[in-house]
């Protein structure tokens, strides 16, 4: 299932790289793209909760505003 994570607080390429690396480190998650301009990450997930995705991103200091399926 593809999900879009709406993320506030990313300001540069380093931020997107950190988010991509952290999300790709989760079992069952494949990152399709992370965009600082569009303020989102698009991921393919297999049995991964939104809570885990949110916690992973917020642990890096960014805010998750919500999800789109």
Characterize the structure shown.
This protein has helices spanning 13-24, 50-58; strands at residues 2-8, 29-35, 40-45, 63-68. The protein is globular, with a radius of gyration of 10 Å. It contains two helices and four strands, in the order βαββαβ. It has one domain (2-68): 2-Layer Sandwich (Alpha-Beta Plaits), CATH 3.30.70.100. It has a four-stranded antiparallel beta sheet with strand order 2-3-1-4. By secondary structure, it is an alpha+beta fold. The mean pLDDT is 97.
Write the layout of secondary structure elements.
Layout: E1 2-8, H1 13-24, E2 29-35, E3 40-45, H2 50-58, E4 63-68
Antiparallel strand pairs: 1-3, 1-4, 2-3
Order of helices and strands: EHEEHE
The number of domains is 1
Q: How large is the radius of gyration?
A: 10 Å
The structure class reads: alpha+beta
Gross geometry? globular
Mean pLDDT: 97
Give the biggest sheet: 4 strands, antiparallel
Q: Into which percent range does the helicity of residues fall?
A: 25-40%
- Beta-strand fraction estimate: 35-45%
| Distance, first to last CA | 8 Å
Q: Going across the major beta sheet, what is the strand order?
A: 2-3-1-4
User: What's the architecture in CATH terms?
Assistant: 2-Layer Sandwich
What's the CATH topology name?
A: Alpha-Beta Plaits
Low-confidence spans: none
| Level-1 CATH class name | Alpha Beta
């Amino acid at each position: 299932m593809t999900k879009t994570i709406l993320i506030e607080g990313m300001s540069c390429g380093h931020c997107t790289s950190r988010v991509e690396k952290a999300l790709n480190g989760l079992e069952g998650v494949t990152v399709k793209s992370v965009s600082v301009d569009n303020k989102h990450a698009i991921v393919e997930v297999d049995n991964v909760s939104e809570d885990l995705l949110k916690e992973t991103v917020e642990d890096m200091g960014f805010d998750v505003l919500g999800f789109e399926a």
